[in-house]
UniProtKB/TrEMBL annotation:
Pathway: Amino-acid biosynthesis; L-valine biosynthesis; L-valine from pyruvate: step 4/4; Amino-acid biosynthesis; L-leucine biosynthesis; L-leucine from 3-methyl-2-oxobutanoate: step 4/4; Amino-acid biosynthesis; L-isoleucine biosynthesis; L-isoleucine from 2-oxobutanoate: step 4/4. Its EC number is 2.6.1.42. It comes from Streptomyces cellulosae. The keyword Amino-acid biosynthesis applies. SUPFAM superfamilies: D-aminoacid aminotransferase-like PLP-dependent enzymes. Keywords: Amino-acid biosynthesis, Aminotransferase, Branched-chain amino acid biosynthesis, Pyridoxal phosphate, Transferase. The keyword Metal-binding does not apply. It comes from the Bacteria. It is an enzyme of class 2 (transferase). InterPro entries: Aminotrans_IV, Aminotrans_IV_CS, Aminotransferase-like, B_amino_transI, BCAT-like_C, BCAT-like_N, Class-IV_PLP-Dep_Aminotrnsfr. This is Branched-chain-amino-acid aminotransferase. Acts on leucine, isoleucine and valine. It catalyses: L-valine + 2-oxoglutarate = 3-methyl-2-oxobutanoate + L-glutamate; L-isoleucine + 2-oxoglutarate = (S)-3-methyl-2-oxopentanoate + L-glutamate; L-leucine + 2-oxoglutarate = 4-methyl-2-oxopentanoate + L-glutamate.
């Protein structure tokens, strides 16, 4: 099946849309969460965002996974674009929990906070600018369960390179930067594949369109370092932690060449939307025997246990919605 930019599944019906959003400082019916065409972020891509999942817990309602880490990253991204939300990480977590309570769901939900440049302040001349423009925050959410195919996906190596960090702040989750990701996905789909793996300007693996990349090579887990021009994924960090703690497997952070991917024993992607998905084909070649590998499969199981609250030692990663 196809992995899409926003985490929707092309082969399945669209996820049901929850009917409440946070917009303009209040909780409003979703149809009132609208923006004028003059919105600066729409014109110049000057917004930052997050993708967060809330998971149904086995016996304790809904919990937001690593909410603090997502909002810490949102505030970091916001600073890059001079967006001042005037809210703390804790306040943003609580705002999200309140949104989910108002939506009234206890099913798996995807949360999309968006902080953006809104309107020119009085007396400001039109143009591309990060100052002299008001800031805003909107948060919407929709029901979304796991959508990746546990049997694995097929990836191209994109002809679109990941921009270097001296051209675009690639470690911030900036809306405008996602034109690069969209072009890479579009190319992958046109080639009949599910997703694209992008190389950086040095020709080393950076990441996939909306996920980080891991490979298993000679029994070692390898992922590119943050200096490879990638978004430092929160799922990436979760996987590194779980591999070490639960499976006794350390991770090597080092440059990964396209030739190594093609010859790896296992390849998988990690991301909030994606979760952990095996890559069973890269650039038209099967990865090993073309079936998900044992380390990938073990990590997928461990991840589900953690996000659903079955591993008490990681309880601090779960922000309860109903207390
Ligand atoms: C470009 C990109 N890389 C990596 C990731 C994975 O990040 P995370 O695990 O924090 O969702 C995402 C998703 O947010 C992404 O959009």
């Amino acid at each position: 099946m196809t992995v899409t930019q926003d985490g929707a599944a092309a082969a399945q019906p669209s996820p049901a849309i929850a009917q409440v959003a946070y917009h303009d400082g209040e909780f409003v019916p979703l149809e009132r969460a609208l923006l004028p065409v003059t919105t600066q972020a729409l014109q110049y891509g000057t917004g930052v965002f997050e993708g967060i999942r809330a998971y149904a817990q086995d016996d304790r309602g809904l919990a937001i996974f690593r909410a603090h880490d997502h909002y810490r990253r949102l505030l970091r991204s916001s600073r890059t674009l001079r967006i001042d939300l005037g809210r703390s990480v804790e306040e943003l977590c609580e705002l999200t929990a309140e949104l989910l309570r108002r939506i009234g769901t206890t099913e798996d939900t995807y949360v999309r906070p968006l902080a953006y440049k809104r309107a020119l302040l009085p007396g400001q001349k039109p143009g591309v600018s990060l100052s002299g423009v008001s800031d805003a925050l909107s948060v919407n959410a929709f029901r979304m369960g796991s959508y990746t195919d546990p049997a694995g996906i097929r990836c191209t190596i994109s002809s679109w390179r990941r921009p270097p960090s001296d051209a675009l702040p690639v470690r911030a989750k900036v809306t405008g930067g996602y034109v690069n990701n969209a072009l890479a996905v579009d190319e992958a789909r046109a080639a009949g594949c599910d997703d694209a793996i992008l190389l950086n300007s040095r020709g080393q693996v950076a990441e996939a369109s909306t996920s980080n990349v891991f490979a298993v090579i000679g029994g070692r887990l390898v992922t590119p370092p943050v200096t490879a021009d990638l978004l430092e994924g929160i799922t990436r960090d979760t996987v590194v932690t779980l591999a070490a703690d639960l499976l006794g497997t350390p991770t090597d952070f080092r440059d990964l060449g396209r030739d190594e991917l093609v010859g790896a024993d296992e390849v998988f992607l990690t991301g909030t939307g994606t979760e952990i998905v095996p890559v069973t084909e890269v650039a038209g070649r099967p990865v090993a025997d073309g079936a998900p590998g044992p380390l990938t499969t073990a990590l997928m199981g461990a991840y589900q246990n953690v996000v659903r609250g079955r591993e008490p030692r990681y309880g601090h990663w779960l922000h309860p919605v109903h207390v």
